[in-house]
Amino acid sequence: MSKILSIHSFRGGTGKSNTTANLASLIAATGRRVGVIDTDIMSPGIHVLFGMDDASMKYSLNDYLWGKCEIKQAAYDVSSKVKGLNAGQIFLIPSSIKAGEIARVLREGYDVGLLNDGFHRLVEELNLDVLLIDTHPGLNEETLLSIAISDALIIILRPDAQDYQGTGVTVDVAHKLDVPQLFLLVNKVPTSFNFAEVKARVEKTYNAEVAAVLPHSDEMMTLASSGIFVLQYPDHPLSQSLRAVANRLV
Asked: Which pTM was predicted?
């Protein structure tokens, strides 16, 4: 059975795209076919982690939403670009990074219903085992759609008062949409914190399971999105925690 997983955060800067890319790579490394779609159309970026740039994008998610191509034409096999990936396949559907096309989205919008069709067609036409959706921060129409059709939702937050408040809104929405599985990931936690206490406090606050408390990593910052962290640092505590999360998801 194929699974659709949404990775979300209420605010930007939580490490959502980096976490999505790392989970996708861990799942692919088990021999699975994995799709990653960047629905953060207004501020796309996950393509950088998979070694893509504007010149290598003939089509993007934007083109599909505007009727210029089929969704499969906007999917790129980036497996060979992912250093350290020795099994499985990753297909990336990027959003456009052209300023004019981002401005057009803001000005004209698009038919959000096409996303639902596109998600399911990707799973079927690419024979995917897992599709990961890198959502837009906050709650808008496409994010609500992504959450509603997902088999699992992963909400990422930092140990920050603003994140805590916004995450509560998302958790409430997820419960109302009856998402089958809901997990929280607390990211960028200073190593001076007591991780067990952070986990317990967040679980009590939201009445939802914390799949992992992820430490702040200088190595992650130094890598600076130039590769996939879990493949470059497979024995790092952060990689071990993410691997456990990936195993839970699939």
From this structure: 0.95
